[in-house]
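Quick one: C-alpha cells for this chain, please?
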Amino acid sequence: TPNPNTKGNTTTTTKTPLLLAHYMPWYEAKPIAPRWGWHWTMNHFDPDRQVDGKPQIASHYFPLIGPYDSSDQHLLEYHFLTMKLAGIDGVIVDWYGLTDFRDYATLHRNTTRALQQAERLKMKFAICYEDQTITALAEANRLAPTDRVGHAADEIRWLGKYWFNSPSYVRLDGKPLLLSFGHAGLTDDEWSRCLEQAETPVAYFSEHRRRAAAVGPFDWPIPKEPLRAVDRFYANPQTGSRFIPVAFPRFVDIYAEAKVGPGYGHFDDDGGKTFRELLKRGLTANVPAVQIATWNDWGEGTMIEPSVEFGYRDLETIWQVRRELGQASGAVTDAQAFRLPYKLLQLRRADSNGNTANPRLDRIANLLATGQNSEAIEALK
C-alpha cells in the first residue's frame, strides 16, 4: 500500500516495506520428540534439569511458553498469529535443503509445516538458503565437488516447483524472493552458474554484499561492531535501490558457556532503544523489505519472540512504530491483543483431544487471522 511522505512542499510516494522475521525451524523438544534437540542443549545443557524453577536450556533467555518443538502445529499457529497481530507481515525461514543428512530432513519437514501454517493464517513467507550445506555434504563425501552447482540448481528447481508457487510466497518485481546465508557455501561464480542452470527466475539477495548474480544484498548483525556495520551497509553504493536492511534487538550468545566456541561478541539490549531505531530506519528507507533478526534464535539471544525477560516489549515496539509511520493494518487497536494467541495456545495444550480437530479453537484462530479480535476475545471467554 502506498505511504505518502511529505518533505516541505514536495510529496513523494513510496511503497510500505514488508516486515519479515527471520525464523528458525530447528528446535526439538520432549514430549513431541524423543529427545531434546541440540539447539536446546548444545550438548552441554539439560532441559530435564530445573534451574531457578525453569528447564535448563542453551540460552541466556527463556521463552514465555517454555522450550518447544518446531514441528508442533499449535506452536506454529501461536507464533504466526502473534507475529501477525504485532504487525509482522511474514517470515524468512532458514532452510537447509532437501538432503537427508545431519538434521536437514527434520528441518525441511518443520519448514514445510511452518509454510502450511503461514498459508492458512494469511502470512507471507520466503526462503533463506543455507548453502553451507553444500560444503558440508562435499566434506562428508555425500556430494562430489563437481556436483556443487548442479545440486544447488536442483534445490532451487524444487523450490520453483513447489513453494515458489504458493500465493503466500514473497515476490519482488514478479519474482520469488530468495536469500542465501553466509559465504561458506557457493562462490560468487558458482551462484551465477547455479541460477543459470536452475532456470527459475528469482529475486536473489546475498548476505552483506551483492554477489554478481544478486539483485542486491541483505544485512545481518555483526555483534562486534553492530551499529557501525549497519551504517556502513546503508552507505555502501553497492546497495543501490535494492537492498534489505536488518533490525535486531541485541546479540548475547551462549556459545562460550556451552563450550561450543568463544562466541561472536556481545551487544547489549539497551532497553529496546536499538531495536526501535533500526526498525524505524529500515521501514522508512524505501526498500522492498526489512528483515528482523530474529524471531527465535534463542542461542544467540537475538529473538523478539515473547520471553520471560522481555515479555512482549519488542512486539509492542513493532506495533507502535508501524502506527507512528502510518503503516499499521488497523486491525489491532490495543497491544493487549498480542496476548490472545498465547491464550489460544494454552487452550490447545489443555484440549483432551490432542491434535484432533477442535472447531471452537479453529474458529478462534481464524478470527485472529482475519482481524476479528473483538469476536476472538468473546470466543476465548
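The CA atoms of residues 115 and 361 lie 20 Å apart.
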